[in-house]
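Section 5: illustrative case.
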């Protein structure tokens, strides 16, 4: 495949349009469109689709079927642009976490003992203006704070009750299979 082939030209145009859109306006409708589906839909030639999947996967280190076009477009300017993302130094591959994100959480928890708790199944999260946030665990323990961060795989959201309920755009994550 030559650098001057139609497939390379189409892939370059597609990426350039994503870069431009990311700096001007990213439509909210893109949040429901995976990068993989967008490439399938808009890249006309099979070789261009393969090239785009490779370039976006390398630049984002993400699973393209689980990565929205919206998230990809929003990440481009935050990462310094597509060319920066594709570099081996300073790009997506430069600081790749090999172990897992769990190691990051463990390191943070060891630095902030008692403030970051891990491996505690949460059953409900209640929030109001007077009392802040109350988190109930599977063991019945209650935690109160002005703010909390709860990290769970999307399929686990089904087992947590939120009061007030999560916004409709967040509710869709409950349907993602494990």
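Designed sequence:
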């Amino acid at each position: 495949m030559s650098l001057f082939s139609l497939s390379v030209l189409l892939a370059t145009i597609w990426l350039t349009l994503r870069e431009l859109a990311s700096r001007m306006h990213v439509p909210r409708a893109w949040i429901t469109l995976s990068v993989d589906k967008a490439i399938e839909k808009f890249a006309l030639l099979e070789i261009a689709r393969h090239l785009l999947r490779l370039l976006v996967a390398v630049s984002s280190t993400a699973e393209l079927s689980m990565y929205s076009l919206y998230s990809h477009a929003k990440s481009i300017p935050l990462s310094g642009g597509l060319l920066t993302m594709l570099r081996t130094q300073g790009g997506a591959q430069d600081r790749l976490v090999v172990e897992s994100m769990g190691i990051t959480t463990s390191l943070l928890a060891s630095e902030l003992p008692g403030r970051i708790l891990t491996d505690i199944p949460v059953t409900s999260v209640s929030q109001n203006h007077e009392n802040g946030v109350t988190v109930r665990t599977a063991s019945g323990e209650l935690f109160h704070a002005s703010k909390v961060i709860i990290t769970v795989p999307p399929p686990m959201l089904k087992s947590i009750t939120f009061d007030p309920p999560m916004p409709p755009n967040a509710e869709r994550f409950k349907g993602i299979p494990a």
